[in-house]
User: Fold this.
Amino acid sequence: MRMAEVSIVGTAFDPAAEAARLVVDGAVGATVSFVGYCRDEGGRLAALELEHYPGMAEEEIGRIAAEAKRRWPITGLRVVHRHGLVRPGEPIVLVATASAHRAAAFDAAAFLMDFLKTRAPFWKREHGADGNISGWVSATDADDSAAARWAEAERPG
Assistant:
């Protein structure tokens, strides 16, 4: 398998170009990608501010990626995550996986995204269209539940 590629970037990125980097040879039978975008929350949100600890964030995402590689026969993996101010309509995160078969690519991508939401050291707060800035937002119970489903999931046979 190619190395897992993890990037934390402070500017907009092209999700399609990033995901295309996974198809490097004839062993790839499927790719799955997820792109999370900044929403405007019905016109209420001007931007989302994302902070992280440089080095620590890449290291933790690397651990999550290593676990995905251990669980599924994936041939490639790409994670790109923004930091700084992200405007509505801009991508925040890309998770892309490649495998010989679709099931592994789907499961690995879902696993990565579920754990990025709960374990990667990012903090976010909302910048309102009215000029107000919220406090730092925590992960939700739904995020924690999504990650918990993998705790007892076995690696596919």
Q: What stands out?
A: The chain has four helices and seven strands. Helices lie at 15-20, 56-71, 102-119, 141-148. The beta strands are 5-9, 30-37, 45-52, 74-82, 84-86, 91-99, 122-128.
